[in-house]
């Protein structure tokens, strides 16, 4: 069979459901092979949209998401999604085309060394030079993409290789089973926890990937040890749990950091160094247990006293079964911190001023969605408000990026979530700046017949940088712009545009959109005037004087 057909068959053998992308002439053999495949081709309007959808597929399923682009500019447009997937630990395979490599009469037209370009952004990148190696390369690439720590891989298929006649062969798919820590290590962890006076559980991104919520919930319910999470660890345990202290949405000086500073032991589950550290270690300070698939990376701010390595769920279960509650544990201060955090987070959650405060918008969106509803965020200052104020009831129901933290990914992520979970309510939340970076994917959403709500928080500026600018004492300069009419913009794509004029109208419009068919876009004016006062000044004055 042709190498291009062999490639598609190898992907089918891996269980690939979708390929997202924009084919070019160098992909036409691959496109022809896909015509008779059970793999669904999802045509997007920009390669970034395809890459973000593939990465989000990997994030939500744990299986590799696949995207396709041509050579040159098509492949270079996948650079940001490659970094997005690799830093965010999302398994993704990128397939790009290339001119013939055995003989070519086009000189260097559109030729870029894509393999070299992808090397620092991927776990594996290779050019296919022999069609018969396709099955083994596909198996190796996908295995690497899905193995801990997951990430992006890349295969380049030149035109002449795609047309080669090859022998049909496939490789058996087996899933990696990770070993568990030995009982000596488990006993060492238990000893550290039992000897602590104020232990605290931290849930990181790695815990969210592997669906270990049941094991962690059993541990918390037995020990009664309070917990908090990083931004990408939200929802592993239902955040309505009485022992939840919240999310470390800032690196320091947030209210929850009072509890972190008071803890003498942090049980750090699924820590990922890509996220900003939620606490800083000091020599002679608090102890840390690192529970993860891979060993800790040591630096000045993170040097755990114990690594518990291997399958996280099994290791947590072993600790839970063997640990005993200690009379010496004292969590009274954590309870005070919890009440303090709740008081501050709820302060503006029902404020009537308009343009709307981000805290109010977050509360309205939370109230409008069922527990399994999904919110996808782009990147902007509102991400901090969602991380702090939005309570996740289930894992992976708030998809935010605190790794690459790129703009432009929010809409594509929501489209993917709705595509694979059509029965769930899905809302995309973007700033006006991030939305405009891939606004063209509205057409894709409409063409796919998705029932989707897109909210644009409109402040006619790059709000995150304005907040940072103010916090550093600089004048307001260089960050304001004009926006199109987002309502008519949505209408022009076949979506339905809305513009609320009050908090009440936003509530009613959002409910109407969630209960309706089609793609709905809500242009929501937002007021960020309190960002500096709450996120900078109050935290700088927060001395944790709650009463220990």
Oligomer: single chain
The DSSP helix count reads 23
Most strands sheet? 6 strands, parallel
- Going by CATH, the homologous superfamily of the largest domain would be Thiamin diphosphate (ThDP)-binding fold, Pyr/PP domains
CATH class of the largest domain: Alpha Beta
Number of strands: 18
From the N-terminal CA to the C-terminal CA, the straight-line distance is 73 Å
Strand content: 15-25%
Fraction of residues in H or I helices: 25-40%
The helix-and-strand class reads alpha/beta
Radius of gyration: 24 Å
What's the CATH architecture of the largest domain? Answer: 3-Layer(aba) Sandwich
| Number of discrete domains | 3
Strand order of the largest sheet: 2-1-3-4-6-5
Bulk shape:
globular
The CATH topology of the largest domain corresponds to Rossmann fold
Q: How does this structure look, described?
A:
This protein is of the alpha/beta class. It folds into three domains: 3-162, Rossmann fold (3-Layer(aba) Sandwich), CATH 3.40.50.970; 183-333, Rossmann fold (3-Layer(aba) Sandwich), CATH 3.40.50; 349-529, Rossmann fold (3-Layer(aba) Sandwich). Helices cover 39% and strands 16% of the residues. It contains 23 helices and 18 strands. The strands form three sheets. Strands 2-1-3-4-6-5 form a six-stranded parallel sheet, sandwiched between helices. Helix 22 links the parallel strand 17 and strand 18 (519-525). Helix 1 (3-13) crosses helix 2, helix 1 packs parallel to helix 7 (134-146) and helix 20 packs parallel to helix 23. The mean pLDDT is 93.
């Amino acid at each position: 069979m042709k190498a291009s057909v062999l490639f598609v068959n190898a992907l089918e053998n891996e269980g690939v459901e979708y390929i997202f992308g924009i084919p070019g002439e160098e992909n036409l053999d691959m496109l022809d092979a896909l015509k008779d495949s059970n793999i669904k081709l999802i045509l997007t309007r920009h390669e970034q949209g395809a890459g973000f959808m593939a990465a989000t597929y990997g994030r939500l399923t744990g299986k590799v998401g696949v995207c396709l682009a041509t050579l040159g500019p098509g492949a270079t447009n996948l650079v940001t999604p490659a970094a997005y997937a690799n830093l965010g630990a999302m398994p993704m395979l990128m397939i790009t085309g290339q001119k013939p490599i055995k003989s070519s009469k086009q000189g260097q037209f559109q030729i870029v060394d894509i393999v070299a370009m992808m090397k620092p952004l991927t776990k594996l990148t290779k050019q296919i030079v022999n069609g018969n190696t396709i099955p083994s390369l596909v198996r190796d690439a996908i295995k690497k993409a899905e193995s801990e720590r997951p990430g992006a891989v890349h295969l380049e298929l030149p035109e002449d290789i795609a047309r080669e006649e090859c022998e049909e062969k496939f490789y058996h798919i087996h899933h990696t089973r990770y070993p568990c820590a030995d009982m000596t290590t488990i006993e060492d962890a238990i000893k550290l926890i039992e000897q602590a006076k104020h232990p605290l559980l931290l849930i990181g991104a790695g815990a969210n990937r592997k669906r270990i919520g049941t094991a962690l919930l059993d541990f918390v319910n037995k020990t009664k040890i309070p917990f908090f999470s990083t931004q990408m660890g939200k929802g592993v345990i239902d955040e309505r749990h009485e022992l939840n202290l919240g999310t470390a949405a800032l690196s320091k000086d947030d209210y929850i950091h009072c509890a972190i500073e008071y803890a003498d032991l942090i049980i750090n589950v699924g820590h990922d160094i890509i996220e900003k550290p939620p606490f800083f270690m000091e020599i002679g300070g608090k102890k840390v247990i690192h529970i993860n698939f891979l060993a800790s990376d040591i630096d000045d701010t993170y040097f755990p006293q114990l690594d518990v390595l291997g399958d996280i769920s099994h290791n947590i279960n072993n600790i839970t079964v063997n640990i005993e509650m200690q009379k010496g544990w004292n969590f009274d201060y954590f309870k005070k911190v919890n009440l303090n955090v709740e008081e501050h987070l709820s302060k503006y959650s029902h404020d009537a001023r308009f343009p709307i405060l981000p805290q109010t918008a977050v509360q309205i969106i939370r109230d409008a969605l069922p527990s399994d509803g999904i919110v996808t965020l782009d990147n902007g200052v509102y991400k901090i408000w969602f991380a702090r104020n939005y309570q996740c009831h289930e894992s992976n129901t708030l998809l935010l990026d605190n790794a690459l933290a790129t703009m432009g990914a929010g809409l594509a992520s929501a489209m993917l979530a709705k595509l694979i979970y059509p029965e769930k309510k899905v809302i995309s939340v973007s700033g006006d700046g991030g939305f405009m970076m891939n606004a063209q994917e509205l057409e894709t959403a409409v063409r796919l017949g998705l029932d989707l709500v897109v909210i644009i928080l409109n402040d006619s500026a790059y709000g995150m940088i304005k907040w940072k600018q103010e916090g550093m004492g600089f004048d307001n300069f260089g960050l304001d712009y004009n926006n199109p009419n987002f309502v008519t913009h949505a209408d022009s794509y076949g979506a339905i545009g809305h513009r609320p004029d009050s908090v009440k109208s936003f509530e009613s419009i959002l409910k109407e959109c969630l209960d309706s068919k089609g793609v709905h876009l809500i242009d929501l004016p937002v007021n960020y005037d309190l960002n500096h006062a709450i996120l900078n000044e109050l935290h700088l004055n927060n001395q944790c004087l709650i009463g220990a």
